[in-house]
Amino acid sequence: MQSFSSFTLILFMTLMLCPGRSTGAPVVQDAQSDRDAIYRREGRGDMSGAQVFDDIGKTQVGQIAATVHEIQALGSQTDSQLPGEVPKAIRGLLTTLKHQLRDIIIKQVNARASRSSPARMRAAARAALAGYGVPVGEPEAWTHDPFLAGYGYVLGLEIERPASHPDLLVAKTRLAIPCGDDTSFYLFKRNAGRYELALALEANGYETLLGAQSSFAYSISPPDGRGNFFVVAADVNAWCTSRWQGLRYKVMRIGSSPYEPQFIARAEHGVLIDKAPMFKLTTRVDGFRLSFWEAQSLDGGIMERRYVLNYALTGSGLKRIAPLAFRPEDFLDEWIHLPWAAASEWVEPSRLAELQSWHERLQAHNNHCCSEFDLDALRPYRPRLKTWRVVVNFSDELAGQLPPRVAFKISRRRGTFFIEDIRPKT
């Protein structure tokens, strides 16, 4: 018995000093060439593998590898799930993985050797993950069918400096989920020679794929005269069917803590996901603009149109400003769906009461089944004066509510559309 215990001790010490290639343990030495390739590709050829792990931490990277492998194993075992349901065992692990990735980014952005370049920070973090068998990028399954790629892949890890903000850094991690992806966003602000996490956006604990921050994008406004800025983040829910999905956007400033931003506004809108780009987001010092494609509700045959949400920041929140749409018929569709308090800003003031009455009748209609544009009648009144006539035909189902044909006179002044007149068309 004594000799057996001694042998066991010797064997254990041998394994500790000379690690092998067991499937459960990460192989660091054999990944050196992979790390070197990443350094060259990412512009980080001046950093040795040993320095990477000094900056990142072997324990942290090993924990990430363990979490990734656990998620992948659980994902391969799940079946008989409801459509879009995220397995319960995976929900908490996704949050764990996000926080592990966040923590190595925090460590890396403050590492002395890589402080000068976001590209070097990114390269070191990616190389350290690759050394432990966690490559950053799209797996082969994603290439063949991104809807079925599954959980447990790190699709992206980015670190970048926003334009006009030399004291800020942005980091994003992007994880694979079926039928989409899930991005986490981290904003760092430099303070006393270090980068501190100032704002974080994560989607955690969601029961279905709808909860993930998929197709994520952000924009940071240029600083105003006092150095203040705001952040707009937008994403589209993941799902496995339909080209019609939901576009969500948040407008915020840095708050009392990273996970408690000061929200200026939060809203959601329908979006068509088969357009490229899916949406476009830009910011200005005093506002932002979001454009995309969605339903044309006045004519089901046309089905879709371009939308533009253009907002100015005010003391109390947001104010919609021109343009409301890019074409007169699209402006009409948008105008009908606005509450009268907003719609009244885009009409001829001398006919306010009459146009309000029409607006109430048209808004009560508000569905896709019973109207269409008379395209033959859609033409400029006087092109030089930038005035159009838009005629809408309403079905017999609305005979008691609206005339069968209604003509709208729409003008454009200084780049802004206005409703000039509405009357039955004979």
What does this structure look like?
With 426 residues, this protein is of the alpha+beta class. 29% of the residues lie in helices and 32% in strands. Strands 13, 14, 15, 16 and 17 form a five-stranded antiparallel β-sheet that branches. The chain has a four-stranded antiparallel β-sheet with strand order 1-2-3-4. The longest helix has 22 residues, at 88-109. 31% of the residues are buried. The model is unreliable at 1-53 (pLDDT under 50).
Strand elements, count: 17
Tell me, what's the shape?
Answer: elongated
* Parts with pLDDT < 50 across at least 5 consecutive residues: 1-53
Radius of gyration: 28 Å
Q: N-to-C terminal Cα separation, in Å?
A: 107 Å
| Beta-strand residue fraction | 25-35%
What is the average per-residue confidence, as pLDDT, rounded to a whole number?
83
Main sheet makeup? 5 strands, antiparallel
**Which percent bin holds the helix content?**
25-40%
Task: Please provide the ordered H/E string of secondary-structure elements.
Answer: HHHHHHHEEEEEEEEEEEEHHHEEEEE
